[in-house]
Every structure is written in structure tokens, then in C-alpha cells.
């Protein structure tokens, strides 16, 4: 019952933050121009939501204490990213060519890009903050088998790559997400 309330609250806060933002910064590095747009990576990008549900459910069943840690760290991570969004608004400025893609891929891309238009609040990537937090939570769980940790690592890497190949974020957004995650872990250890 808590997850829908928290998710709904996040959306309301996110939309409210947008009302106070002006003068967006573009944090594009030279390497970002070398990364191609590959529309088919939208499937991996969208798998993020299932990844979050499956991993948090797994921890709920296998390691209840670590599940609560994950839950708390996700809230802390969201708060940190929202503060950054408010203080230093960023914008993604990229061209995406959907001409040579199949109908389903094109549709998924268009719906995703339209839902996220304009592409603002990119630094740090909340997709990556949450992915790093889930990866950390699974890896430190003593009740999680090594092969599960390996699968979560591989899926995490694919999700992080997907935000680049779908041109949803720049490389610096991933770096910022990793730093935010390290801050979240440090704060969580103090609580």
C-alpha cells in the first residue's frame, strides 16, 4: 500500500519542481556525440520498471531487513536528486532518428520521449540512482546467491547503457548518479 502512495507523491513533487525551474544547463561531454542512438535499446530502458519490482520483491521475500534498507535508500536517493533538479536544472538536447525502426519500437520510443518532453531534470539520472541502489542492496544481501547477484549486475549494466543508447541521458548523468548513490549509502549507514 505504501509504494503507490510514494510513487504518486514522487510524481507530484517532480511536477511541482518543474514549475520553479528556469535556465536549464546542458551537460553534454564530447564522448556523448560518439554514442549512437539505437532505438531498440528502448526495450531495455523500459525494463527498468520491471527490474525495480522484481528486485525489491526478491529482497522482500529473501532478506526483509535489506528490503527496508532498499526502500529507505530509494527515498533518500529520490530526495537528493530532486534537490539537485531544483538547484541545478539540466536539459537533454539530442536528435533521435526513428525512420529505420519497426512500428512497435517506434511507438515505444515516441510514447517514452513524449512522456519525458521536454527532456529536463537529467542530472543525476534517477534511473541510474535507483539501479545503483538496487545493485548495491542485492550485492550486500547475505541471503542472495552469487548467480542472482551476477544477473542483477548484468541487467544493471544494460539498463545504464540503455539510457545512453536511447539518448535519455548524458554520460555525466551516470557519474552524478553514482556519486548520489555513494552519498545515499553513506547517509543510510548513519541512520
Residue-averaged pLDDT: 91
- Number of helical segments with 4 or more residues: 8
Judged by helices, strands and strand pairing, the structural class is mainly alpha
Gyration radius from CA atoms, angstroms: 17 Å
Strand content: under 5%
Helix content: over 70%
Shape assignment? globular
Q: What can be said about the biggest beta sheet? A: none
Overall strand count: 0
Summarize the structure.
This protein is mostly helical and 191 residues long. It contains 8 helices and no strands. The longest helix has 24 residues, at 64-87.
Would you spell out the secondary-structure blueprint of this structure?
Elements: H1 2-19, H2 30-34, H3 42-62, H4 64-87, H5 103-115, H6 126-140, H7 146-165, H8 171-190
Task: Name some characteristics of this structure.
0% strand, mainly alpha
What does this structure look like?
The chain has 191 residues and is mainly α. Helices cover 71% and strands 0% of the residues. Helix 3 runs parallel beside helix 6 (126-140) and helix 4 (64-87) crosses helix 8. It is globular and about 45 Å long. The mean pLDDT is 91.
